Amino acid sequence: MRYLLLLSLSLAALAHDANGRTSAPLESRRILNPLKPNEQRLFNASAVFTRLCSQCHGEDGKSKTKQAATLPTRPTDLTNYLMKQMKDGEIFWIVTNGVVGKMPAFSPQLTEEQRWELVFWVRELRTRQLYKERIQLGTYKWKLPPGFPYPNVPSTNLMTAAKVELGRHLFYDRRLSLNQTQSCATCHQQARAFTDGKPRGVGSTGQHHPRGSMSLVNVAYNTVLTWANPNIRKLEEQALAPLFGDHPVELGLTGKEDLLLSRLQADPCYKSLFPAAFPEEANPFTIANLTRAIASFERTLLSGDSPYDAYRRGDDPDAISPAAKRGETLFFSERLECFHCHGGFNFTGTLDYLGKGIAEAEFHNNGLSLDAGLFEFTRLEEDKGRFKAPTLRNIALTAPYMHDGRIKTLDAAIDHYRAGGDPANPNRSEFIKPFKLTTAEKADLLAFLESLTDPSIATNPQWSDPWPPRRSRMTPSPAPARYRE
Ligand code: HEC
Ligand code: HEC
Ligand code: HEC
Fold first, then answer.
1. Ligand 2 centre from 323 Cα, in Å?
2. How far apart are the C-alpha atoms of 366 and 308, rounded to whole Å?
3. Which of 19-33, 98-112, 155-169, 179-193 has the lowest mean pLDDT?
4. From the CA of 403, which ligand is nearest?
5. How many C-beta atoms surround the C-beta of residue 77 within 10 A?
6. Which residue's CA is the closest to the ligand 2 atom numbered 41?
7. Chain-wide mean pLDDT for the chain?
8. Do 448 and 333 meet the contact criterion of CB atoms below 8 Å apart?
9. How far apart are CA 258 and CA 261, in angstroms?
10. Is there a cis peptide before residue 248, judged by omega within 30 degrees of 0?
11. What are the pLDDT digits (tens) for 427-454?
């Protein structure tokens, strides 16, 4: 249930933390802090916090103390982004009443005033953490969807607006393929939530990729990249694969690094964009900088504005249909089990974000087949057919489905799960087993999956092709008609 709870923060006021739930009653959300914060109050509260709370929650509120490690329930990380969802009244209630079996009640030893002051301090811990996080992220002004945490950004590639702008130009530039027919955007199209509508990728020389293109929306939060490779963890590294990989050829630039860089250097637009993005470097035209810029652009592809989000945040109780609401219940049910693998705020496996700590990658066999998958990298028999569970956000835009596009519609994808996958596949996950689903229930589940589409993706001007039309369609050496967009 924890994924459902994660999403139902503001509506039900049940949860605020990735590992637990608050026991503060709903009414407590309405109790307002009668005090005004000032330095004296913060000072008082910080001293009380050190004395009574820090052994479990740590001085910094991150709850990584020796004592915390010995408790049956991990104390809540008071700096976690989910704390934002907790109202003052709930924090006051918890400090007053404690949590049975987990945290003592403090009403016996603290006055009401002291308890309200502590609420200020708990807030302050989060503010301080945010400040630290922003410094770690660079100067770029993020537009985080409500309730989303900051993604992790490598310290060697802090985010700036200039890098993002350069990355966007590169992402849409066909000079990034040897024969100048393809850019990243050929296989990752904005209108399709950055997929390409093909079952499997087709590279610039016509070679077929064994797997299909993947959505890049919210890719900044993925612990590992691509369908089944446990080793690619950074977008900077991943970008090298399509550029220089030759099994299969995608953009086909292996050994042609200098040619690529001289092409870019000759462009008047890049003459200003590269130095602006990497102002400290005498020669900013390097492959490392190119991948840094593309990765920076990819990290801005954040979306959490589907009708389902509006409904869950409580902005609009009618943002999704009654059918979609019933479909939600099915999705999160133990009968269908979908949420075990497509969970959390991005409807996928474990996510990585700033302040998260270790984020283990997850791979599952969803009953399709014994295609290599993770096996390719681990050579363990049980890893045959294990793949990353992709995000189900915008799933209505990203057909065909699965790593090789073998399933054409969402309707057929549901049929696959209803049948419990391929019975001849011995590696099926324990969560993949046949279930009953009426026609009406199937329609409900579909309505729910469709409510996960953010309609603004296709039109968001910040993610669109920045080149004037003539330039972006430039195809000096025409590809065979069937590979043309
Ligand atoms: C003995 C260890 C311990 C001490 C001391 C302690 N806490 Fe907690 N605290 C916890 C645990 C465990 C949880 C997680 C409860 C849960 O998951 O339901 C928690 C949760 C919280 C929460 C989140 C609310 C929730 O429902 O999870 C807040 C806010 C909080 N503590 C504040 C404080 C403050 C302020 C103090 C000092 C006055 C304090 N705690 C002292 C163990 C402790
Ligand atoms: C020929 C089509 C094609 C081109 C061109 C292409 N990609 Fe991809 N992309 C794919 C395919 C296919 C996958 C899945 C690869 C796999 O699983 O091995 C993928 C996966 C990805 C992923 C992993 C997403 C995730 O959720 O794990 C990222 C990131 C990505 N591509 C970025 C790029 C960038 C950046 C470029 C340009 C430098 C690019 N791609 C060019 C087809 C393409
Ligand atoms: C055991 C984990 C697991 C469970 C349970 C699960 N899935 Fe999946 N799902 C996956 C994996 C792994 C993939 C990718 C498999 C592949 O391509 O080989 C996937 C792929 C999908 C896709 C295609 C995504 C894309 O971008 O191509 C859809 C749609 C989907 N699942 C929906 C559901 C629904 C609906 C349920 C519940 C009925 C469900 N899943 C249950 C693991 C799971």
1. 34
2. 25
3. 19-33
4. 3
5. 26
6. 184
7. 89
8. no
9. 5
10. yes
11. 999 999 999 999 999 999 999 999 999 9
On the question of pLDDT at 96 being above 60, the answer is: yes
pLDDT > 60? residue 484: no
Q: Taking Cα atoms as reference points, which of 335, 366, 339 lies closest to residue 429?
A: 366
Residue with tokens 């060697």: 156
With the most atoms of ligand 3 within 8 angstroms of its CB, the residue from 341, 350, 370, 444 to mutate is: 341
Q: What is the pLDDT of residues 225-272, one digit of tens each?
A: 999 999 999 999 999 999 998 888 999 999 999 999 999 999 999 999
- Range from 75-79, 375-379, 466-470 carrying the lowest mean pLDDT: 466-470
Does any ligand 2 atom lie closer than 6 A to the CB of residue 226? yes
Q: Which residue has the tokens 């991990």?
A: 74
- Distance CA(119)–CA(125), nearest Å, equals 10
Q: Which two tokens stand for residue 48?
A: 């009380």
pLDDT number for residue 22:
60
Place of tokens 């190119």: 290
CA–CA–CA angle 235, 237, 239 (5° rounding):
70
Measure Cα distances from 213 to 189, 192, 331, 390 in Å: 10, 11, 25, 11
